Amino acid sequence: MNATPTLNIHDLTKRYGELTAVDHISFAIDTGKIIGLLGPNGAGKSTTINMILGLLEPTEGTIEVFGKDLGKHRSKIARQINFAAVYAHVPLNLTIRQNLTVFAMIYGVSEVKNRVEDLLVEYDLERFADSKAGLLSSGELSRLSLAKAVINRPKLLLLDEPTASLDPSVAQSVREKILAYVRSSGAAVLWTSHNMREIEAVCDSVMFLSHGRILLSGDPRKLAAEYGKNDLDELFIAVAREPLSLGE
User: Fold this and answer.
1) Nearest Cα to Cα of residue 194 among 183, 209, 182, 179
2) Which residue from 14, 143, 184, 234 lies 20 to 30 Å from 129 (Cα-Cα)?
3) How far apart are CA 92 and CA 95, in angstroms?
């Protein structure tokens, strides 16, 4: 059995002048596991994801994906990673089919047409396939974003608030599709969210970031009680308001 984590981060740090956005964090994600990265706005979640994607250069530390250093093997690793984020919009002037085709080509997917058609069916986008993305509802756009995120069958999936602003029904559908993908592919997932019920439902473990540091981590269904809180919402608020007392 291969014990190498899909993602292994050690002492990862990102500074902007005097500001430290991410401060010497270390964690790993094993195959088939979903890890939640939680914290208030400005805690360093998106910066961490952007470093893993290779969009930002770390100031210090290492990122290993599939046991290989991201800095040295970026082009090879990049084809096995993908992401979905509430702020990462697809080209709105392209149709759904065109969007998926373009991204399939970018990621070097084989049999592009077949892969695109399969995803149109799987994500219930077939009837909108020739509609421009700019005309879609938020729920339809989210399904398109998720279809894009799995188009290359990634082994590492980064999700930055993938269900933000969606109604409960659409959000549940998106979560179910992500979980189905993880079960079928064995992908490792790093998932940020402000929805604590969602985190409890999908994540195997969680980490709370505060001012760029991992303040605490553990099982999302047990962690609140360990810190004398009633639930993850209460723990989240405590992390945001009184991080130093929690860390003591």
Assistant:
1) 209
2) 184
3) 8
Report the side by side order of strands in the sheet with 60-65.
Answer: 19-29, 7-16, 60-65, 68-69
Biggest alpha carbon–alpha carbon distance for the chain:
56
One-letter amino acid identity for 91? P
Cβ–Cβ < 8 Å for 145, 83: no
For the record, the structure tokens of 238 come out as 């405590």
- Fold for the domain defined by 81-150: Helicase, Ruva Protein; domain 3 (1.10.8)
- Is the distance from CB of 19 to CB of 76 less than 8 angstroms? no
Residue with tokens 């945001």: 240
pLDDT of residue 1: 45
* Residues 125, 119 contacting (CB under 8 angstroms): yes
CA distance 76 to 38: 29
Alpha-carbon gap, residue 116 to 112, rounded angstroms: 6
Report pLDDT digits (tens) over 115-128: 999 999 999 999 99
Determine contact, residues 207/236, Cβ cutoff 8 Å.
Answer: no
Q: How many residues does the chain have?
A: 248
Looking at the chain, the whole-number percentage of residues with pLDDT higher than 90 is 74
